[in-house]
Amino acid sequence: MSPSPDLIPLLKQLRLSGILDALEARNREAIDDHLAYTDFLSLLVLDEVARRDQKKLAQRLRRAHFRNQKTLEGFDFSRLPNLNRAAIHDLATCRFVDEKVAVLIVGHCGTGKSHLAQAIGHSAARLGHEVLFTTQSQLLASLRNAQAVGHYEWRLQTLIKTPLLIIDDFGLKPLRPPEDENFHDLIAERYERAATILTSNLDFSEWGDAFPANKMLGAATLDRIRQGAYRVILEGESYRSPKSPVEGSKNDIAKGGKTTHS
Length: 262
Fold this sequence. Notes:
six-stranded parallel beta sheet; single chain; 10 helices; alpha/beta
């Protein structure tokens, strides 16, 4: 069935032109199944809602700047046989985003930290949350560049308001002044306001080493990060060099955190 010539401009005026994509198939279904007019209309409306939701999701994923489309469905749990899958799937419900707390993921190189962080972020985007994925280096560079052109406060506020900020490779490079102060300001302003995921190759006991120039500032920053955080420790063989043996991690977990071991 071809739509009435008068229908196309009206649907465009109402911003419902997507209905045209499903109109012919739905009309045939209505005829074959003897659907009532209201049921036919309901199908068209549901199609339009689904189309808009998919478009919004695609936009959120684009704004998230994920490296790849890493999802939990594509995460290889077989390499981490002791990982508590139920706890990981619970994190993927993104209750922690509503709780406005952090998820801290540590492990040796190649154990899947970045994949897992992005997979949880992908789940958050599917649930309607705005997400931003970045590395520590990229994050600090963006703040440094914004400061150079007088847009520091605007950039900082944008990061503060992001419901889920994922910072990959925390502590890979030491935080030197003034970057340690910038990082502290961001974490302090997000504290109890928004959720954060951090991944790191460092054991939790070594996180203070990321602030070599100002231990007191580092302690204040980490205290806010750790408060009520969910902790995930990945212990297993590297995805990048699966034949290389990986030594098990022996982390001392601070009180008050929630821990998921692999």
